TrEMBL record:
Gene3D superfamilies: alpha/beta hydrolase (3.40.50.1820). The keyword Metal-binding does not apply. Keywords: Hydrolase. This is Alpha/beta hydrolase. It holds the Pfam family BD-FAE. Coiled coil: none annotated. The keyword Hydrolase applies.
Length: 288
């Protein structure tokens, strides 16, 4: 296995506002070597966006999750995107440029380019959801010198995602994402409220949440599921009866001294997600 770091740069000119810093985002790649008995085998790729309310990038949803997907035989990438005081659409452009990089190297890295899946947690789930709903918008790909097809993800895994800026929204995430003033702009709030952006162009989606999440209410996932249903998008959704926000893997590895994030009943989501990936982009088609 190789571990590589790539600098993902988006300039002020490209993102449309004067950034507070021109520092690059970091994309960490965990790349498995080809197996001697199957040197031409193509692997799915998972691009992980940890959560943190657009105020930080959570380590609990970083390497522990990457190792689980790596163990399943996937090529795995973790994006440390920019957060506040940087604002929309910088992080989304960093994710778009990351997907484009992975597609450009798909042959070299033995990746099935139709199986590049964005995976996000909480606000990172919102970021991944933006990628899945906005990959075909000119404001996203054109300033980067890319094409819509060049940044199109093959699927989404959304874990207790921030979705709506409305009644059930996690308002701090949207304040951090949009910045002072813009967070009160109805047009901008609607743009980043993903239940309004769903359509038939959205890739197949795996979605999970807990019924008792008090930070990002389950209505976020229910609203998005309803929108995807109306758009005819393939969806697998799991709602667990108990569990706080930010469970990550729900294991002892990611839990602190309180034990709040140790919820054995929720630990199965990662296996369900891996089964969903293996099922392939088309109903009834299984990828090996």
């Amino acid at each position: 296995m190789d571990i590589k770091h790539y600098k993902i740069t988006v300039t002020s000119e490209e993102c449309g506002y004067r950034r507070s810093t021109e520092d690059a985002a970091d994309l960490t790649a965990y790349l498995l070597s080809p197996m001697p008995q199957a040197p031409g085998r193509l692997r799915p790729a998972i691009v992980i966006c940890p959560g943190g309310g657009y105020g930080f990038v959570s380590p609990r949803e970083d390497q522990p999750v990457a190792m689980e997907f790596l163990a399943a035989g996937y090529q795995v990438f973790v994006l440390h995107y920019h957060v506040a005081p940087e604002i929309f659409p910088l992080a989304l452009m960093e994710l778009a440029r990351s997907v484009a990089l992975i597609k450009a190297h798909s042959r070299e890295w033995c990746i099935d380019s139709s199986q590049i899946i964005v995976c996000g947690f909480s606000a990172g789930g919102h970021l991944a959801g933006c990628m899945g709903t906005m990959w075909n918008r000119e404001f996203l790909y054109k300033p980067l010198g890319l094409t819509a097809e060049g940044i199109q993800p093959g699927g989404m895994i959304l874990c207790y995602p921030v979705i709506t800026s409305g009644e059930y929204g996690h308002q701090r995430s949207f304040s951090q994402l949009l910045g002072a003033g813009a967070d009160q702009d109805p047009a901008m709030r609607r743009l980043v409220s993903l239940e309004h952006q769903a359509g038939p162009h959205v890739p197949r989606t795996f979605l999970w949440h807990t019924w008792t999440d008090q930070t990002v209410p389950v209505e976020n996932s229910l609203l998005f599921a309803s929108a995807l249903r109306k758009a005819g998008v393939s969806l697998e959704m799991h709602i667990y009866p108990e569990g706080c926000h930010g469970l990550s893997l729900a294991t002892e590895e990611v839990s602190d001294h309180t034990g709040d994030c140790l919820v054995p009943h929720c630990q199965g989501w990662i296996n369900l997600a891996r089964e969903w990936v293996a099922h392939g982009p088309n109903t009834g088609e299984r990828t090996e």
